[in-house]
Specification:
seven-stranded mixed β-sheet; single chain; 13% strand; Aspartate Aminotransferase, domain 2; five-stranded antiparallel β-sheet; 2 domains; globular; Aspartate Aminotransferase, domain 1; alpha/beta; 12 strands
Length: 430
């Protein structure tokens, strides 16, 4: 760490020299890994640039219309750009998709029909999907309410897709099999692109008509390929995560086969209208600009996640994934073993924020979650988890999930402040 930065952090911002020593040690050990990540970032930056140029993106596409939104050239171009990046036949990219859960819900409910069977082969889905599927909750319009059955195949002890168990689970009713790429609130590594490619090949060898769907939240631009380039039929994600680059104000995307996207669009609006209508409310420019800088933003976030893992592993904590493992999302999980440590970590992240740094996060009963959840996120866009954030359900073994940072320097500062908060409360020895 350079002298001027060191003095600013210690003298003006109250950071302990012991904390900074841990950061310096971790950064030095990670230089080769960071160099490899920079290469992935450069590849994806140029890929995005090429797709923009191929689609002749112009400032005229930043304009927006009113009413039904017919013939919106900006919206159509934005969706062609997303289809180009994911190398799919079609895409939906809309501000009316309110979050990742909504994008996934549209995908599931737009494709599945009564009597169909859905299989998740990466274990328990993210908490907010449980009510969508019908695992918990009742009478709320879940897939279960509409006659879609559900099976869940756990990962192996090593965290890989269990192909033998999956084969046994597949039945004549199986219409869709889904992979949740990211960790969610689990204790496992994210599913990598080579693993997704092996999975799609396995499923299609059993029944080529089964739809392979991926929850791509937190996974965009972590590799030089996306899931739809290795056999996935359809995927979905959120614009306030990776692909929005921290600039998109909201929205979600779905990309895949044109017949599937058409059915999903009919669910999004209505049969017969589909994606032909729908205002962008002036968000086309921010969505395009956010997508353009997303590879660089994701690069900073994933470096920060790896730094977090290296620092806390050096201090004796269990982390997932380990710093040297191949990454497939931007999330770093740290097993802190007590609610006090989880809360202190999140207080540190909040104190590192540019927005609402003076606010103290507390656990609360968030809609869609089964346990109280603490969320630290002083973000320019509410709930944006490509910006620096940390969250955790308050349940044993008290795992905190760290992610985001619009720049590596800010993500790194989040690690510094989280460690400092634990140190100040004597919950950690350095």
């Amino acid at each position: 760490m350079q002298k001027n930065t060191y003095e600013l952090l210690t003298r003006k911002m109250g950071i302990s020299q012991n904390v900074l020593s841990q950061i310096d040690q971790a950064e030095e050990a990670l230089q080769d890994i960071f160099a490899d990540l920079d290469d992935i970032m450069a590849f994806n930056q140029y890929k995005v640039l090429e797709v923009f140029q191929q689609n002749r993106v112009s400032d005229t596409h930043f304009a927006w219309n009113t009413g039904y939104g017919y013939n919106d050239a900006g919206r159509e171009t934005l969706e062609k750009v997303y289809a180009g990046i994911f190398q799919t036949e079609a895409a939906l990219v809309r501000p009316i998709i309110v979050n990742g859960t909504h994008a996934l819900t549209l995908t599931l409910s737009g494709i599945l029909r009564p009597g169909d069977e859905l299989i998740y082969c990466t274990g328990r889905p993210y908490d907010t999907l449980e009510e969508v599927i019908g695992i918990r909750g009742e009478g709320r319009g879940s897939l279960k309410d509409f006659g879609v059955s559900y099976k869940q195949v756990e990962l192996t002890e090593e965290g890989y897709i269990d192909f033998a168990a999956l084969k046994d689970a597949i039945s004549p009713k199986t219409r869709m099999i889904t992979v949740q790429r990211a960790t969610g609130y689990g204790w496992r590594r994210a599913i990598t692109i080579p693993e997704i490619e092996e999975w799609t090949g396995f499923v299609k060898s059993i029944n080529p008509n089964i739809i392979c769907m991926v929850d791509n939240c937190y996974g965009e631009f972590l590799d030089t390929k996306e899931p739809t380039q290795v056999g996935v039929d359809v995927l979905a994600g959120s614009l306030i995560k990776n692909p929005g680059g921290g600039i998109a104000l909201g929205g979600g995307y779905i990309a895949g086969r044109s017949d599937l996207i058409e059915n999903i669009a009919y669910r999004m609006t209505s049969p017969g209208i589909g994606g032909e209508c729908g205002l962008m409310f002036g968000q086309t420019r921010t969505m395009l600009q956010g997508l353009f800088i997303a590879p660089k933003t994701v690069n900073g976030a994933v470096k920060g996640a790896i730094l977090c893992g290296e620092v806390f592993e050096n201090l004796g904590y269990e982390v997932c994934p380990k710093p040297q493992e191949q990454r497939s999302d931007i999330i770093e999980s740290v097993k802190l073993h007590s609610p006090e440590a989880v809360i202190a970590f999140c207080e540190g992240i909040q104190a590192a924020a540019p927005i609402d740094a003076h606010v103290t996060p507390i656990p609360w009963d968030m809609p869609g979650y089964d346990d109280p959840v603490i969320m630290a996120a002083g973000a320019f866009v509410q709930g944006s988890s490509i910006e620096l954030s940390a969250d955790a359900p308050i349940r044993e073994p008290y795992i905190v999930y760290f992610q985001g940072g619009l720049t590596y320097e800010h993500s790194k500062f989040g690690v510094i402040k989280a460690l400092q908060a634990l140190y100040n409360k004597k919950l950690i020895s350095i």
